[in-house]
């Protein structure tokens, strides 16, 4: 590649070692596609999770289904090319951790580097629209003098990127800045105890900081699907499933969320009964829920499958109204993991079909082989 390309223009590198590394990544994507849950992509700071920080990676991230797609010396334009040339094809990870752009800093303006990062996020979201993106702000680097100039430039870029990316719900982007754990407010030096001798790449202690601060963000997992364990919550969820099954044809508006939604049924009941109930509105609020709980509730609603079965049966009955219909419940299946979750869902769907309020004609019998 040459410096003629801008940070937002996909650029291939011609060095043999780079092409070999790119091919290795393509092979990993092809062979492990279904098992890849987290992708780390970027430059040397990502790649060195496999060497400098291998002990952390092997114990914590590899078991999560994480893969390391870092290539040393890459800039934003190179990662753009890699994304567009197969490295993420066919994947559906829950999360992509992105660290790219630090190598653009010495060569391009702040605005150009920001535009390059923005292009990477755009391209990642276009390729993986259902995946959350966690972008790491640039780490301090002390390999160029005067250090203050470099660190000031990095902070200016970070201050521009953070409000652009953090909480960007449209692109499912999140931002993590660990800069101040690695350099003082004075911006006149880096904390060298966290760096290798080159003052550019972190040592193991530096990666421990990255790991610790990233865990604080990921442990919150507001984008995950999380079930709550309280019995009352599970009962409330089942009540909602039953309502969906029995009133599907009449439901025109759904209110879904936490206590502020649920309280329409108590604090706001007078308004609800007068205005919203006659419109076919339904209240699916559960007190104490967070985003991850609502996501789980949406993911674990079998009504679409049940409604599909109901439509098939109804069409058959309309076509041959005098015939008896034997509906065979779903057989157990063990082709997806975890099997226990799959079987519980099969049982739940069968239960709903059997007595969940779906108005099958009386001539229909449900045979449950499960």
TrEMBL record:
Protein name: Platelet-activating factor acetylhydrolase IB subunit gamma
Pfam families: Lipase_GDSL_2
InterPro entries reported for this sequence: SGNH_hydro, SGNH_hydro_sf
Keywords: Hydrolase
Keyword NAD applies: no
Residue ranges of every copy of the SGNH hydrolase-type esterase domain listed in the record: 41-209
GO MF term (any one): hydrolase activity
């Amino acid at each position: 590649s040459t410096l003629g390309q801008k940070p937002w223009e996909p650029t291939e590198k011609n060095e043999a070692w780079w092409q070999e590394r790119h091919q290795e990544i393509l092979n990993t994507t092809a062979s492990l596609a279904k098992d890849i849950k987290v992708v780390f992509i970027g430059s040397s700071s990502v790649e060195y999770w496999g060497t400098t920080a291998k002990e952390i990676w092997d114990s914590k991230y590899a078991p999560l289904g994480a893969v390391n797609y870092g290539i040393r010396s890459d800039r934003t334009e190179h990662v753009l090319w890699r994304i567009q040339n197969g490295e993420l094809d066919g994947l559906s990870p829950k999360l992509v951790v992105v660290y790219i752009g630090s190598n653009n800093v010495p060569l391009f303006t702040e605005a150009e580097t920001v535009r390059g990062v923005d292009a990477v996020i755009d391209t990642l979201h276009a390729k993986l629209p259902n995946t959350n993106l966690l972008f790491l702000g640039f780490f301090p680097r002390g390999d160029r003098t005067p250090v203050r100039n470099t660190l000031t430039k990095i902070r200016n870029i970070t201050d521009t990127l953070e409000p652009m990316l953090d909480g960007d719900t449209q692109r499912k982007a999140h931002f993590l800045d660990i800069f101040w754990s690695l350099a003082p407010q004075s911006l006149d030096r880096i904390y060298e105890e966290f760096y290798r001798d080159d003052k550019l790449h972190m040592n193991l202690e530096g990666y421990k900081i990255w790991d610790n601060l990233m865990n604080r963000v990921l442990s919150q997992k507001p984008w995950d699907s999380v079930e709550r364990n309280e019995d009352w919550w599970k009962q409330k969820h089942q009540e909602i499933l039953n309502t969906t099954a029995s009133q599907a044809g009449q439901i025109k508006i759904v209110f879904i969320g936490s206590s502020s939604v649920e309280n329409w049924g108590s604090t706001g009941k007078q308004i609800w009964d007068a205005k919203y109930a006659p419109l076919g509105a339904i209240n699916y609020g559960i007190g104490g829920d967070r985003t991850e709980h609502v996501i789980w509730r949406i993911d674990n609603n079998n009504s679409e499958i049940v409604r599909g079965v109901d439509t098939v049966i109804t069409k058959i009955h309309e076509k041959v109204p005098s015939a008896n219909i034997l509906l065979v419940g779903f057989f157990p299946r063990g082709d997806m993991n975890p099997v226990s979750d799959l079987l519980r869902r099969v049982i739940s769907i069968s239960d709903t079909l059997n007595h969940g309020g779906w108005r099958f004609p009386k001539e229909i019998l449900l045979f449950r082989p499960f």
